[in-house]
Amino acid sequence: MTRTDPLRNFKYLLEIDQITQAGFAEVAIAESLNEPIEYREGDERTTPRKLTALTKFGNVTLKWGLTPESKELSDWWQQVVNADPLDEVRRNVVIRVQTEAGENSVAYEVERAWPCKYDPTDLNGVGNEVAIDMLELCNEGIRRIR
Half-sphere exposure (CA, 13 Å, Cβ side) for 30? Predict the structure, then answer.
């Protein structure tokens, strides 16, 4: 029997419509949930039924090292700040997990994402840490596509 080991979480690619920036230090996918509604009619047993309600998708957080070439994501944020029409700002994002050999494996699609929070790096003349920018993406759906 062939052994299938779980994938490691440190090899991944990110594809964003019209944005080619790569080299993310971290991509955090928040949980999604389908909130239940409890419902019971008077003549039913004492245990309520649970029905589906709103499905909520958590935000996706991107962190990357600051470089002179890493301006596309902050420009995307600036489109929201400039009040560009939101339909023009939304992008589809694909997160591809790779095998240790670098082959694409599992993939997630984040639908109609747009930047809702931007946190530029803190600068500290005493420290020696890498400068990291952070962008949080609101979205209308996260699904596994592979």
Answer: 14
| Cα gap 73→16, rounded to integer Å | 10
pLDDT digits (tens, 9 = 90+) for 65-112: 988 888 889 999 999 999 889 999 999 999 999 898 889 999 999 999
Residue whose entry in the numeric block shows the structure tokens 């993310």:
24
Q: Answer yes or no: are the C-beta atoms of 106 and 123 closer than 8 Å.
A: no
Of 7, 14, 8, give the one whose Cα is nearest residue 135: 14
Strand partners, 30: none
Walk me through the domains of the chain, giving residue ranges and CATH numbers: 12-144 (2.30.110.20)
Q: How high is the pLDDT of residue 50?
A: 92
Residue 56: alpha-carbon gap to chain centroid = 13
Helix (H, G, I), strand (E, B) or coil at 85: coil
Handedness of CA 124, 129, 130, 133 (dihedral sign): negative
pTM for the whole structure: 0.86
Distance from C-alpha of 97 to C-alpha of 12, rounded to nearest angstrom: 4
